[in-house]
Amino acid sequence: MKGLAQSLLALSILSSSVLAFDRPALVLQDGSATVGDIHRTQGPRPNIVFILVDDQDLQLGSLSYTPHINRYIRDQGIFYKNHFVTTALCCPSRVSLWTGKQAHNTNVTEIYPPYGGYPKFVTEGHNDNWLPLWLQDAGYNTYYTGKLFNSHTVDNYHSPFVRGFNSSDFALDPYTYQYLHPVYQRDQDDPVDYAGRHTIDVIRQKALGYLDDAIAESEDRPFFLTIAPIAPHSNFEMANDSDVTTFRFSAPIPLDRHRGWFPNAKVPRTANFNPDSPSGVNWIRTLPQQDQASIDSNDEFYRARLRALQGVDELVEDVIHALDSAAVLENTYIFYTSDNGYHIGQHRLHPGKECGFEEDIRVPMFIRGPGIPSGEEVEAPTTHIDLAPTIFEIAGIPLRDEFDGTAVPFEPGQDGRKEHVHVEYWGKAGFEGETSRMPNGGPVAFRNNTYKALRVLGDGYNLYYSVWCTNEHELYDLATDPHELTNLHPSANSTAEQLLGFPIEKVISRLDALLLVLKSCQGISCTKPWDVLHPAGDVQTLRDALADSFDVFYQSQVRVEYGWCEEGYILEAEGAQVPAVYQGTRWSDWW
């Protein structure tokens, strides 16, 4: 590997001779303008750097502690204020991101086999059909360093090797989350043990080395580089190297220079922080209120997360400086996001994710790059399954019919953009912090955490609707209840009679029908679900669907309902899959 300074100097001399290619301006499926309309239709193809962190929150204020990320990416690009993951768990979320598909279409729904992890990614055929391979076919050099998927281990990394990268250097389980004992595996080499070195120092060296290599080759081929540090995920402690069954999670470990930072930081005391009355449904509603010792412990856990993020924040600055020194920054798109969000104390939850609340599913998401305005914010809802189509659009590649998402907008405004997000989850939920202080003991892992959910953000409405495998329901109006404390669904003994100016059952019937389509959607039915219910195309939004003329149709519609709880995507347990279709004054079963 060449020295960084030498490569950057060489590229600064060669940058004027980068090859051009003809690339037509693209238009999104909804007809809105894309980056193809904004920047050059001829010229050097843009490079892409994708920074994917692990478990960073948006709702808990972590971005107030990351000045470099804000300065170099957020303030120089677009902040997607309503960006959601479609599964609030590491591995399924990452597979959805890199394939552009909902988890019910990837069938990777957990972090461990048999329902998830790297082995499931392979057996489902994704190792032969995913973003890095598509980019290589389109003429890109591709590189990756850091965490890829859970259950990608020192024992199975070669069974088979990950496909799609010119070079890769992956953090491997069971050492992925061991901040002071990482193990990395490069290309087809044996794993290398970095015991005693901090994982952020290790990935910084590898990321800048790959950036050096990528820039040196970019005269002929643009590059796609993913940098995936584990911060601010919890630290993983094993009893010993030979026993992976005996472990515990503890607070993330910062670099030595960041220890003791932010001594007065606390989890934001929002209305849903450790509420006096239980909230949510299912196991969440059974949680005891945290005592002061637990609150103090969780505040310290929160501070540890902020400290661990400082190494990522510094890494972002290093990447920007390297790109700028090589004179390629202005032709490089930089993405920054997290695989899922995080909760600490909200709804009485101890540290973790896996729920459908805003803290878990809403994540930081920024893009800067050629033609993207600086300091703008997009209100329209976007998701991780939109990112592979976005990268295709940037690279000038025709979108694939199998994509369940569409490219994100590169300017403010929602005109014609989808207003829905489908969230789904299967299996367990658990806590990662210090839970031994929970009153009366209590479990740290919970079963039957399987649910389908829907976020709808449109003209005058901001709603969350979910159906659990226990057939419990949630309905929150986030316009009036942003912390999701008041379940408006009649099954929760709510006294609410109206929502959005309509009878509440009328709104629920539309939301449930929309969720019925999305829970098994594929391709265009994921982006245009109303067209499934209304093939005439006269309904495109929740507001349209609330017309009185559709009341009988929606009252008669089949409902979302589980047969029983499963820990993976078992179709027989998922209930009805096929909605009825509106046909004027008549309706019939659709397929």
UniProtKB/TrEMBL annotation:
Protein name: Arylsulfatase
Organism: Aspergillus avenaceus
Family: Belongs to the sulfatase family.
Pfam hit, one: Sulfatase
Annotated InterPro entries: Alkaline_phosphatase_core_sf, Arylsulfatase, Sulfatase_CS, Sulfatase_N
Reactions performed catalytically: an aryl sulfate + H2O = a phenol + sulfate + H(+)
Keywords from the UniProt entry: Glycoprotein, Hydrolase, Signal
PTM remark: The conversion to 3-oxoalanine (also known as C-formylglycine, FGly), of a serine or cysteine residue in prokaryotes and of a cysteine residue in eukaryotes, is critical for catalytic activity.
The protein's enzyme class: hydrolase
Sites of 3-oxoalanine (Cys) modification: C90
PANTHER family associated with the record: N-ACETYLGLUCOSAMINE-6-SULFATASE FAMILY MEMBER (PTHR43108), SD21168P (PTHR43108:SF8)
Keyword Hydrolase: yes
Sulfatase N-terminal domain segment(s): 46-397
Lineage per the UniProt record: Eukaryota, Fungi, Dikarya, Ascomycota, Pezizomycotina
EC identifiers of the protein: 3.1.6.1
Signal peptide: 1-20
Keyword Signal: yes
Single GO term (MF): glycosaminoglycan binding
BP GO annotations: phenol-containing compound metabolic process
